[in-house]
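Before anything else, study the sequence and fold tokens given here and see whether the fold suits the sequence. Record follows:
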Amino acid sequence: MNAPTPHIDFANPADATAVLKDVAGQLRAGAIVPYLGPAVAALSQPEVPLGPEALAAFLGTKVALPRRAKGNAWASAQHIESMKHRSTVTAYMTEAFTPKVAPNALHRLLASLPVPMIVDTWYDGAMRAALAERSDWGEAQGITRAGIGEDRWYRFYDAAGAETDKAAAESWNTLLYKPHGSVAPAKNFLISDADYVEVLTEIDIQTPIPDIVKHRRTERSFLFLGCRFNDQMLRTYARQLIKRSSDHHYALVEPDALSKNELRFLLEAGLTPLALPLDKAVEILCA
């Protein structure tokens, strides 16, 4: 028998706006960690794939994909990696995300605030570009372990894009965390099924997550902006990244677009859903 559809009573726009205004104050006080999805980059109207489905479609223009891989970015990348080479996957991902994504109002707002950490889950470099006028920040990126010959899960980069180490990271006022990698500054991409098999095997015990991320999330809430949770991997990452943080989190959502699994995830993870358009939410946060 099919499980019943989870039910959420979404707050009306006025109440959601009031909650988000309060969240904006917490964001400015450093008590909120912004967690950005691909729809944030979409506000800049860039010429890059905006979401896993669009990325899968882009990869499908490069090679003929089997039916099982179509529409699935991770399976598409795995097929390319298996049939060609990892370097081909990296080349296609670099091509997809080489077009510049201009920082938009949300990127610029976050770059202007003394937030201890920003989580950005897409592969573009807009958030790095927005932070460029500062020197008191740096970045941690998830990396593929394919062919590197090292027992490493992530790398650190300073504001200038030079690779550094976790000791240097401790001094940064703001940490930009890109758990899936990024085109900038070094073309690190977690993208294939094989990449995620390794990470997801360990993520429950938190090994792939940098210690500085674990420290800076402690007692802080998360605000999910421009994110979907319509894939098990996306839900797993979100669940593991908010582990051992505050028990109050917020997610901007479009109620009519949510799947049963997304509704269930919102309830299970204790996320307060705010049914507001992203552009409206950015106006409220920037006010």
Notes: The chain has a mean pLDDT of 94. DSSP finds 13 helices and eleven strands in the chain. The first strand starts at residue 32 and ends at 36.
